[in-house]
Hints:
Layout: H1 7-23, H2 26-33, H3 41-50, H4 72-82, H5 88-102, H6 105-117, E1 122-125, E2 141-145, E3 148-159, E4 166-173, E5 182-188, E6 194-199, E7 208-219, E8 223-224, H7 230-266, E9 268-269, E10 272-273, H8 278-291, H9 303-313, H10 322-325, H11 328-343, H12 370-375, H13 380-384, H14 388-394, E11 395-396, E12 399-400
Parallel strand pairs: 1-4, 2-4
Antiparallel strand pairs: 2-3, 3-7, 4-5, 5-8, 6-7, 9-10, 11-12
Helix pairs in contact: 1-4, 4-7, 5-6, 5-7, 7-8, 7-9, 7-11, 8-9
Amino acid sequence: MEFSFSEEQDELRRTARRFLEVASSTERVRAAMETERGYDPEVWEQLAAELGWTALTIPEEYGGLGMSYLDLHPLMEEMGRALLCSPFFSTICLGANALLLGGSEEHKEKYLAEIAAGDLTATLAFTEPNGLWDANGIEATYEKDGNELVLTGKKHYVVDGHTADLLIIAARSAGSRGSEGVSLFLVPGDSQGLVRTWLPTVDQTRRLASLSLEGLRLPNSALLGTEGQGWRVCERVLDLANTALAAEQVGGAEACLDMAVEYAKVRKQFGRPIGSFQAIKVRRLLCERARGTGAPTSSRSRCCGKGLLLRCVLPVRGRQPPSARRHRLHVGGRRTPVLEARQGIRGALRRRDLSPRSPCRHRGALNGTASDQRRRGVSRRSARMVEEPTRRSLQGPEGPRRIR
């Protein structure tokens, strides 16, 4: 069985790396982090119109290229390597997949062609302030009022939710529990009754937002798929999104490793390169073990490996001067805890699980009760940590400070 990428996929990787070396340089990443949108519209137009990345996995009958989801993985690895600031993940891995898996032909024809052309950005909103990542966390409700649907509630940690042109929102019917009664709704970003607020989170290379649904009224045609079957679509979308995130993190971790190895070769202490010391060699060994975990065809199985790789490469931020914390390595490190909380693998990355007798194992947090999640190492606090550490760090003696 062949587990390596094909020649076409490797060529896509090389093309992406050449483009992102310029379009997602350190200077341009920091410039995008300072903008209200969180990304450069010119770069988005280039990767959509000129490179056709937004059309990659969309079927040909809807204006796409009709390539497989595996073809997306080398592209995601390069985006993670370059820390690309764009709504690509939210639009393609969340929004487009939700439309493909749950949408009617009318919905697919209406929205997928615009997504493929780069004219429409989308996202999926299912998490809420309670910090749960499964169906039990959905508390927003909907009710029918004649020919309209009325949505009420709040959404939290919505990827690119403050800029998305189309939001796919999960809500449940009154009195339902668990996965039963959950439906998905197509909500334009400029709808009346929808209030969107950007969240000052740890990772500003990928923005999160909160949504307030204040009596949001939608036509009945806004229902995506079958009523009451929305969580089944969500589960499949999140499984696909997690494989894309794992691929992205593999690329980011390998970039960190390359920078660390290069630094270990040129940095000298006691008259010789620090890479010759045993402590550094052990970390390098752990990184190489992590790099070899899994195969390209199962990127989700590599998520623990990449997490271990990043933890071995990244230095302790508290011991670094402010100038060091502005380095690209630390910007990439801010994305790591956010994605670990989203994927539910924080418990598997604790130090006690990194010994040879206790190898890393992926433990998903997409299914099960809250107690199941806590046993897996995914608590409500691990979900909220995406936001809370930065809130504390933003509060100085004179009030909020500007994000760096």
